[in-house]
Amino acid sequence: MSETSARDILRPELGDFFAEIVRNEEVAAYVYRMILLINDKAGTPYPAPLPGQFVNVYLNDAGRLLPRPISACDWSNERLTLVFGAVGAGTRQMAAYAEGTRLRVGAPEGCGFDTGAARGMNRAILVGGGLGAAPLLLLADALRGYGSCAVRAVLGFGSEPFLLREFEERCDEVFVATDDGSAGFHGNAADLLKELSVSGGDSLFACGPAPMLRVLSRFAGGQGIPLQVSLEERMGCGYGACLGCACTVAGAEETALRRRVCRDGPVFNGSEVIWDV
Ligand SMILES: Cc1cc2nc3c(=O)[nH]c(=O)nc-3n(C[C@H](O)[C@H](O)[C@H](O)COP(=O)(O)OP(=O)(O)OC[C@H]3O[C@@H](n4cnc5c(N)ncnc54)[C@H](O)[C@@H]3O)c2cc1C
Ligand code: FES
Fold this sequence. Notes:
Elements: H1 6-10, E1 16-28, E2 31-38, E3 54-58, E4 68-71, E5 74-76, E6 79-85, H2 89-96, E7 102-106, E8 123-129, H3 134-143, E9 150-157, H4 164-170, E10 173-178, E11 185-186, H5 189-195, E12 202-207, H6 210-223, E13 227-230, E14 246-250, E15 256-260, E16 267-269
Parallel strand pairs: 8-9, 8-12, 9-10, 10-11, 12-13
Antiparallel strand pairs: 1-2, 1-7, 2-6, 3-4, 3-7, 5-6, 13-16, 14-15
The structure holds flavin-adenine dinucleotide (FAD) and FE2/S2 (inorganic) cluster.
């Protein structure tokens, strides 16, 4: 593996860290949990990721220089957990890496969830669609310390749930939906949320496919409930240089503004995202 990446050349001030894969296992069909032990760099420890931040994972493949952005799912004792779908050539390579493989990873990137929004609320409701559940686990962990604020997870999957035990350990309530009805509610997470009680004392946090986030955004807007959404746009460079990840948000006086998901997000207020562009 080369010791110098394209990112080092473009952003020498940050550089990347080296990590060793200590676990890489399939937790549902085509869904993998990878645990990375991340080494200090010249005495600088890897920064603990905040909920909703993502990590750029570089492949050990000179033919694939662009990193794969993957959300931080869990963090403890210098061990970073990523949960990813093997959906394309790069993530299939990641799925095939054996334990002991060394990888280059960027420091945690982006603006994550504003956990302060849950302060003073009765309940934080985390809504995850498929792999969008991954970043919500670290969020559940952070919100657990908020005393009187209860944490409810509403998780939708295709047919095979994953991470349920971990959510049950960190949330007061966990509700499951599957598209094919094989477990829990028959439908997606947004449909299930509408079936459950929501109230003005709730704060919503969501990650998942754009159609689900769009539906949630309308629902939350209609109920007057605050919603934060984590977007997973296609990315290029992954650190703000190429504008390949732009989304559209509402600016002042009905203007529309372009925002970089990798730098300005990936988390935005649901009420400010313009979905139909
Ligand atoms: C902020 C953020 C967080 C993410 N978190 C997760 C996660 O926790 N778990 C997970 O399974 N997936 C996550 N994704 C999606 C994941 O990055 C893509 O599935 C992955 O990059 C696909 O790479 P590939 O080589 O397998 O696919 P290919 O289609 O072969 O990828 C080709 C190129 O497109 C880029 N790309 C392709 N799809 C996406 C995509 N959806 N988002 C961003 N870039 C893409 C890749 O970086 C690569 O440069 C996240 C995406 C973003 C933007
Ligand atoms: S991916 Fe290049 S600017 Fe966001």
